[in-house]
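re: ur msg from earlier - yeah i can do the MTE complex, just paste it... oh wait u already did. ok heres what im feeding in:
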Amino acid sequence: METFYIENSYIQDGIKKARQSSSGLIIRQKEPRNLETPLDEVDSFLTPTELFYIRSHFPIPKLEPASYQLRVDGAVRNPFSLSYRELRDMPSETRAATLECAGNSRVFLVPQVEGAQWELGAVGNAEWTGVPLRALLERAGMEEDACEIVLEGADNGKPKEPPVPPVPISYARSLPREKAIRREVLIAYQMNGRDLPPDHGYPVRAIVPGHYGMASVKWLTGIYAVREPFQGYWQTSDYGYWDYLDARPVRRPLGEMKLKSEIARPRVYETLAANQVCTVFGAAWAGETEVTEIAVSTDGGRSWAEGEFLDPAQRHAWRRWKFDWLTPKQPGKYTLLARAKDANGEVQPDQHDQNYGSYVITHPLPIEVFVENPTGSSS
Ligand code: MTE
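and the outut:
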């Protein structure tokens, strides 16, 4: 089947304007800070902390480790509070996990939609150290009928997008019980071997591997078990999608990340020499499964060839890949695409699913490049 992808001129405007903050990140919004990773500069399995994207809805709350308390409460037999020191003294785990913002690649939607115009870099892969959430829930004695765990951050305010709540609200998200008790969900205090930086949730944040980034609540101060599904702003008004129940649309919270791949190099509108090997680099990730194949097209989706993975399959972490492309002799504009397959046999969809609104943009993203012959003439 032939697939054709629409060219997108918004990307060109965005790239030139947004680059770059003094930290090397691409500015999408200055305050609260929404900064994007320049993915073409990421060369390693772990994204360097200073290049890791930042997505915050409110200003950073000031939390001091000396007075920090994490409250574990709600549908539990033994509610308790934990100091920063007590948390750090508990047995910890370190694991790599990819975080992707659910709105990553929004700039590729045609027609253009509201919201931060993320390109490719609202995603990163880091190593996180912390205490499994499960250990805290066990200590608290979670009640049998608790169905979700609400994670609450210390940051708060009034979101700009309607419906605007009547009072300031804190950033809070819930996790289904089955996910919350899985060993991989961490109450983390370190990122890539160092204490969390303020932008990434210092002193303590949740890390929910396999779920979109919005689940990994930063500046975490509260963990509450609840008996009814939590209906907070960040999982109904925002970060929700349309599902169907008996053919009727119902709103559900976003959760597990969908299979996706991206091309990091060459960059959009990069100029390449004709008849030369250009190595295309990228990364692919999935939610609760593994990426098993990567296909690359250099002709806008008419034909596909297999790429080669640079990292082994590891649940919840991305796999970088490469593909050697002998650029055509014929100068012109070429469209590169990447499409991943996972261990369940799923492949990325051809089109964006409208039920996700401006989130979950997982169709193959067109990267247009120019091929020129060495003299620069176009014939
Ligand atoms: N946690 C709090 N408390 N406040 C926030 O605004 N943003 C969420 C999540 N956790 C957010 C939060 C979103 S939308 C994403 S994508 C990730 O944090 C981004 O994590 P990062 O900034 O460390 O990359």
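cool cool. The chain has four helices and 24 strands. ping me if u need the other ligands too
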